[in-house]
Design brief:
The chain has 520 residues and is an alpha/beta fold. Helix 13 links the parallel strand 15 and strand 16.
Length: 520
């Protein structure tokens, strides 16, 4: 192959496995985007999209053994984890197909003309149309669910937008395999294969975001990379929406009552969440507020025991491994920071899990000096901040930027509330105050569970205030499709000239809101 080679690398050894592709040139990126744009008309067929999404899910399931084997060879995530991720991925494709079939995502609203109003109201009909070609930037840590066949791709295709995926260099062979399955599913469904295509290379990613026919972009990755693409999207002659999921610390607050009630359970659960996927989940709890005192000590003791018994693991690539080792070393060297279970290098190709801890009063005395502790460290480590009272805990939370999640570990009594009759000016209970505080910080609030694992469901929200995300939409769940649509209103347009979705007879049987009344 001519050009810069793209290699599949075994993270367990650091050795190249095979050359998968070559990095795309600017002209190749241009051809991919133009081919995708040419497929827009065919993808406008809503029924064909439904068939396609379900066919893609079926093909991925039928190829499960091959897909899981390819992904494990490039990520070292293990067949068990990857089998579950593939199931989540195909479920998501089918869930998007169901949403398209239901039609509610079009948000059809009709206000019939009413000349008796002052001022008179004309006939107005509104629905949503697809934006155009979507650029998707695949994530490193989910080679399936946030990559070529993942949520950004599924929701964009569901909206009627062709997709060009910039492949993540950590799993190029898996990405090529999944792209071939999606393209085959498209052709089997009567659609052009170019409704989905992939490009490789850092420069190709920049060319993609700048291409005039790209109408929107979805990204999952680091703050640095995401912000660079976000700025590029905004700096275009015609700026485009950029839906980026960037970094997140995912704070956890353990109340004194919860620690007294089940310290050991919380400590063990925290360890499991921190080490899941070798700490490479975007919703890994990275900062945990634990009360001072004997109950907090029991919790951290259980955490230390569980982390100490965790075998070293392989990160997605050696660059991430080096970044993890350097990052935890810098954090551990800060004044007052202690490492009861030292995270870091576990071997030539592995890392060991651990945690760092310090007193809240030290952090609050000079927050700038401890700024790195308030940033995500990708890998199996968390920071435990010991607080004296709720004032200190609230002050630490006030230092945090936006997050994907925030978790509260509460006691049974705190979950039951105070049972008091609401007063004219009620005083919130401590647990209610915490709910209010973390709601400002995060897109998903978790109580007495752990944030790792993001269910694909209509009510899910995977996003949050910046830098967790660059927009207020979700990348997971049924409403993810809304990112790739824009509303259009038609005023006083004769019925035969309206899109079928808006005609008076409702030939497509869509759910609609007609002059304020839900109908189908």
């Amino acid at each position: 192959m001519a050009g810069t080679p793209v290699w599949s690398v075994d993270p367990r050894t650091g050795k190249q496995r095979e050359q998968v592709a070559v990095e795309a040139t600017p002209s190749e990126v241009d051809r991919a985007v133009r081919a995708a744009d040419a497929a827009r008309g065919a993808l406008a067929d809503r029924a064909a999209r439904i068939v396609f999404l379900r066919a893609a899910a079926d093909l991925l399931d039928a190829s499960a053994a091959h897909v899981v084997e390819a992904a494990d060879a490039e990520t070292a995530l293990g067949p068990g984890r990857l089998t579950g991720e593939l199931g989540r991925t195909t479920y998501q494709l089918r869930a998007v197909a169901d949403a398209v079939e239901d039609g509610a995502y079009l948000d059809v609203r009709i206000d019939r003309a009413d000349p008796a109003l002052a001022p008179p109201r004309p006939d107005l009909r509104r629905y949503k149309v697809p934006l155009g070609v979507v650029a998707v930037y695949a994530a490193s840590n989910f080679p399936l669910a946030f990559s070529v066949p993942g949520g950004d791709t599924a929701s964009a295709l569901g909206a009627g937008c062709p997709v060009v995926v910039k492949v993540h260099p950590d799993h190029p062979a898996t990405s090529e395999l999944c792209a071939s399955l999606l393209r085959r599913a498209a052709e089997d469904s009567g659609l052009p294969a170019d409704v989905v295509s992939v490009v490789h290379g850092f420069d190709a990613g920049l060319e993609l975001i700048r291409h005039p026919l790209v109408a929107a972009a979805g990204f999952t990755g680091s703050i640095r990379g995401g912000r660079a693409l976000f700025d590029a999207a905004a700096a275009r002659p015609v700026p485009i929406p950029f839906h980026g999921e960037l970094g997140s610390l995912n704070p956890v607050v353990v109340t004194p009552a919860a620690a007294a009630e089940r310290a050991e359970e919380i400590g063990a659960g925290l360890a499991g969440s921190v080490t899941l996927g070798v700490g490479q989940f975007c919703v890994k709890p990275g900062l945990v507020l634990v009360p001072e005192g004997a109950d907090g000590d029991r919790l951290t003791g259980a955490l230390a025991k569980a982390l100490g018994e965790t075998e070293p693991g392989v990160l997605l690539d050696h660059r991430m491994r080096d970044g993890f080792v350097t990052g935890v070393g810098e954090r551990a060297a800060l004044p007052g920071v202690v490492a009861p279970v030292t995270p870091g290098a576990g071997g030539e190709h592995t890392v060991g899990a651990g945690y760092l801890t310090l007193a809240a009063r030290g952090l609050l005395a000079d927050p700038r000096a401890y700024g790195t502790l308030l940033e995500e460290c990708f890998g199996p480590v968390t920071v435990v901040v010991r607080y004296a009272d709720q004032v200190e805990a609230s002050a630490v939370l006030a230092l945090l930027p936006g997050n994907l999640t925030a978790t509260l570990q509460l006691s049974a009594a705190e979950c039951a509330g105070n049972g008091a009759t609401p007063a004219p000016t009620p005083v919130p209970a401590p647990a209610e105050q915490l709910i209010g505080l973390v709601t400002r910080l995060a897109g998903r609030v978790v109580v007495n569970a752990w944030p790792t694992g993001v269910a694909v469901a209509p009510a899910q929200h995977h996003g949050g205030p910046y830098p967790a995300a660059t927009s207020h939409s979700t990348s997971v769940g049924g409403t993810a499709i809304e990112r790739w649509l824009r509303p259009v209103a038609y005023q006083s347009v004769p019925d035969p000239l309206l899109p079928p979705e808006l005609r008076e007879a409702n030939p497509l049987g869509l759910p609609r809101l007609v002059t304020g009344t839900p109908t189908t």
